[in-house]
Specification:
Layout: E1 2-7, H1 11-26, E2 30-35, H2 40-45, E3 51-52, H3 57-61, H4 64-67, H5 75-86, H6 90-101, E4 109-113, H7 117-127, E5 130-135, H8 152-180, H9 190-197, E6 200-203, H10 213-217, H11 231-237, H12 244-251, E7 257-260, H13 269-282, E8 287-290, E9 304-307, H14 312-315, E10 321-324, H15 328-337, E11 341-345, H16 350-360, E12 363-367, H17 373-383, H18 386-398, H19 402-414
Parallel strand pairs: 1-2, 1-4, 2-3, 4-5, 5-6, 7-8, 7-10, 8-9, 10-11, 11-12
Helix pairs in contact: 1-19, 6-7, 13-17
């Protein structure tokens, strides 16, 4: 059985899927992996012999399209930007994925994440392969996950509106890809077509956060749990554990507040660090600030430590709370560490995770652009209350383990052919 992974996006979009690719390979399956060009070295260190597919996700996140146009005060500018981002790099992605998957019969299952799944599913249709998607948050119409105030029927209508908007934004671009593959134009949105084809949509997050959703969606959307690399695979990346210098700093005082926004572009690093320094000083706390994909070349007071990327599994359990962007991977790591969250969200799934953490009683959230010294200080006071910290510790014991989650996801993909 041959699996072809076509993975667009940032590290948070790609790394969970690589954990499943590695598991399938351990099971003796043939696995071909395509990732964004800037993430080829990451996948290579895992021994996956990766190929570059689609656009460079780092360049996209650093572009004026994302940093300026998507944040424009002009609604028309924002809509145009969202349309461009939604189908960004699809021509290249299709061409690259075609070369990986080959002709009819050469691939049994095509696997994609949320980004580019329109292209991946069209290619699978063209070559007669099965198709599976890995979803790191709820993206289909449902009654269980609140996106607006109101009862279940209102939620379902709100989700339907969102799905229709997505279809309107991407229909022209998707049908252009289908035409390039020799397929007829699609007349209905992807959600409907995948359901009718019996495609598998693996829910790669913990059902604990979305009560009722697994029963609502059924076997075609199996819940695996949050996906993560094994300890041995993380060791291959050279990112495991805590170095002596950072370890000494962590041990030298009360556990710090972790602050990290991953691949999200921080518009004003100096201001962010100043606000973090001020808010934690007001509370008598230390702060560990991770720059992620940003450059934080700023001076900091003694109670603040600046670092690059860190091993979340090793560092977060040694912190008292985490301030982050609400990406699925970071959210999972914070939950597993048993500490509360302050989510400063940017877009996409992040505000949903912020709300779900609040519903679970383990966090609070607001738009990243509203983060300042006072608001962050008040949010930290709220999540560091004993009841919230105890709830966070309890939730950590209830989550599906990474090993089980990866195995469940691999089982689901093996059923997709």
């Amino acid at each position: 059985m041959r699996f072809v992974f076509g993975l667009m996006g940032s590290r948070g979009d790609v790394q969970p899927a690589l954990a499943v690719a590695l598991e399938l390979r351990r099971r003796g399956r043939e696995v071909t992996v395509g990732v964004a060009p800037n993430l080829v070295p990451l996948a290579a260190r895992l021994g996956l012999d990766p190929h570059a597919v689609g656009p460079d996700s780092g360049a996209l996140l650093a572009s004026s399209l994302v940093r300026e146009e998507m944040r424009s005060a002009n609604p028309r500018t924002r809509v145009r930007a969202v349309r461009k981002v939604s189908a960004h790099g699809w021509d290249d992605f299709r061409a690259d994925l075609v070369s990986l998957a080959g002709e009819r019969g050469s691939a049994d299952v095509v696997v994609a994440g949320l980004l580019g799944q329109e292209v991946g599913s069209a290619l699978a249709e063209r070559i007669g392969a099965g198709f599976a998607a890995l979803h790191y948050f709820p993206v289909r119409s449902n009654r269980s996950v609140k996106v607006v105030p109101g009862p279940e029927v209102v939620q379902e209508k709100a989700w339907d509106v969102g799905m229709r908007m997505r279809w309107e934004l991407t229909r022209e671009a998707e049908n252009a890809q289908r035409a390039a593959l020799g397929l007829a134009p699609a007349r209905t949105r992807l959600q409907t077509r995948l359901r009718d084809r019996g495609a598998v949509e693996v829910q790669a997050y913990d059902p604990l956060l979305v009560p009722g959703l697994s029963q609502e969606w059924g076997i075609q959307s199996p819940f695996a749990g949050f996906l993560a690399l094994s300890g041995g695979d993380r060791l291959r990346l050279g990112e495991t554990g805590v170095g002596d210098d950072l370890g000494d700093w962590l041990a030298a005082g009360y556990p710090p507040v972790y602050v990290g926004f991953g691949s999200m572009p921080v518009a004003d690093p100096a201001r962010l660090v100043a606000d973090v320094a001020g808010a934690t000083a007001d509370l008598g706390l230390r702060a560990l600030v991770s720059s992620g994909w940003n450059s934080f070349e700023v001076d900091v007071p003694d109670h603040v430590r600046l670092v690059g990327a860190v091993d979340h599994a090793a560092v977060l359990p040694r912190c008292v709370a985490a301030v982050h962007h609400g990406g699925a991977g970071t959210t999972a790591a914070v939950l597993r560490a048993g500490i509360p969250s302050v989510v400063g969200w940017y877009s996409a799934d992040q505000p949903v995770w912020g709300r779900l953490l609040g519903d679970l009683g383990v966090g609070t959230s607001f738009r990243a652009g509203r983060l300042d010294r006072d608001r962050l200080g008040e949010a930290l006071r709220r999540v560091l209350m004993p009841g919230v910290r105890e709830r966070a510790a309890e939730v950590a014991t209830l989550l599906i383990t990474p090993e089980v989650a990866v195995a469940r996801a691999a089982d689901a993909l093996e059923r997709a052919c």
